[in-house]
Amino acid sequence: MRKVSDLNIASNIPLPAPALLLHEIPRSEAQEEFVAESRRQIRDILSRRDRRFLLIVGPCSIHDPQAGLEYARRLRGLIDEARQKLLLVMRCYFEKPRTSIGWKGLIMDPRLDGSDDIPEGLRLARRFLRDVIDLGVPTATELLDPITPQYIADLICWSAIGARTTESQTHRQMASGLSMPVGFKNATNGAIAPAVHAIQAARHPQTFLGISGDGVASAVSTTGNLQCHLVLRGGDSGPNYSPQHIAEAERQLAAAGLEKALVIDCSHGNSGKDPSRQGDVLRNVWAQRQAGADVIVGAMLESNLVAGSQPFPRPASQLVYGQSITDACIDWETTEQLILELLRSR
Known about the structure:
Number of strands: 10
Order of helices and strands: HHEHEHEHEHEHEEEHEHEH
Structural class: alpha/beta
Strand order of the largest sheet: 1-2-3-4-5-8-9-10
Largest sheet: 8 strands, parallel, barrel
C-alpha cells in the first residue's frame, strides 16, 4: 500500500495544553488588573474619550529577553513623565512573518539555532510579558499563529494583525475573539480596503477552528471585537501618512460605518525602510494631529537599545547586545529624545 499522508512531516510534537502553561506560569491579580486597565485606556484613546496620544514603541522583535527587559525599564522611566500627553506601550513581538525564509521569532525558535523548541518559546514569551507588566509597562504584540493567543493573550494590552495577514480570513476570525484592541495594517501594496474589510469582519460574530484551554481541537464561536481599528504603514507605492492619505483613510472608514481612528506606523513603507526617517514621520504625524487631525490617535516606532540591525543567523554569543536581528531600529537615545520632544511641544 502506498503512503499518502505525512509525506513531508519530519516530526509532530504535542504542545502543552494552554491551561497547563497558564497554571505553570500564572498571572497575578495585580497583573490582571494592570492589563484590564491598560486595555481600557487604549480603548478610550481610540474612541477619543481620552485625548492622549497612543505611542507603541519598542524592538522590532524580542530575541534576547534580558535586553528586552532593559528596554522596558528605560521606557518605564518615561511613563510617569509622559502620562498627561502620551500612553506609552511597549512592542513585545515574538512572532515574525517572513517574506521568504528567516528567523520566525522567539516563540518559534527561542534558542536562535533552528532547534524550534516552541514549548520553551511559549514559556519564555509568557514570562517576559509578566516581567514587563510587573514594571508597569503596557504590552503590545503582533499575533501571527492563531493558536498562540491561547498561551499569551491574557498578558497583551494591544495587538496588531500585520500587512501580510490582514487579508487572511483566519486572522480576521481570530481577531473577532480577542479581548484587547486590535490594529489591522493596510496591505503590503498600500491598499487600505483590505484592512477596512478586515475590521468589518472582525467586528462580527465568527465561528472557526481553534483549540480549547485543554488543548483540544474545537469550534470557537465569538461575539465580535468592536475594538478593531486601522493602522497605516505605507506600502510598495510609498508612504501613506500625508494629509491626503489621512483624509482618504478617514473617508473609507466613514463609508464603511466604522469609527474613524488611525494609528500611524512610522516604520516600514512610511519610512522607506530607513529607520532614521521614523522621527520625521512621527513629527509630521504629531503636527497634523496638533493642527486638528484628531482622527490620528497614535503612532508606532521600531526602537531598540542599539541602532540598526545585525546579520543573522550567527552564534548567539556573537550578537551585539540590544541590537535587532530583524528590522533595523532607532536607538534608545533617539527614542527618548523623540518622546521628550512630543512632551515639550504645545
